[in-house]
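If you are new to this repository, start here. Below is one unmodified record pulled from the training split, so you can see the exact layout before writing a loader.
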Amino acid sequence: MKALWTILVASLALAAAPQQATQPASQPDPKQDINYQIAKLDALNHVLPLLLTKDQANKILTALEKVREKERQVRKMEDDQLKPFRERIAKAIEDGEKKKLVPDRQLLADLAKLLGAFDRVRAATAEDNVSMIEETLKSTLNAGQLKTLAKSLDPRFFAPDLKIEEITDSERIRIFIRAILLQPATYDLLVELAKNS
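And here is the target side for that same chain:
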């Protein structure tokens, strides 16, 4: 039986090999990635119980689109500020690989300073984004939906030091925004909900 199984698996592998070789190489669809699909399941688990109307989904989408635009602007600003370093970085890598030279300390210090500034800008932008979405949710959802949203996640999973009895609904909503609403799979889900509601 074991030998039969081995022959069957080998036959299937040989039969599939020519097909794999003739298929054109292309970028995989990120929506087919298992991690994306798991994130989409998670989004479904947390968003569907809110029973969003089409209008509510559209208002949340509008806020999320503003967030995405701000994030694009931050990435562009970072790219623009990194452009002057490209040649220095490429040379340092080449010298390291070919001449075994350790990268220049000044280059590393300059990059560390710049990347630290990027982190601070990203953190401030993220807080602004969460606040904007929180305002949108509070002005868009009814009291029952907000309560469902606030109770949707266990905050201790995201901040183990928090005492559950001391966490406000506003803090729970902010955790939900970071963990669920700002995820690409949730954006895609809201687009579908807005279309199909």
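Two things worth knowing about this chain: Confidence is low (pLDDT under 50) at residues 1-24. The chain has one domain: 33-196.
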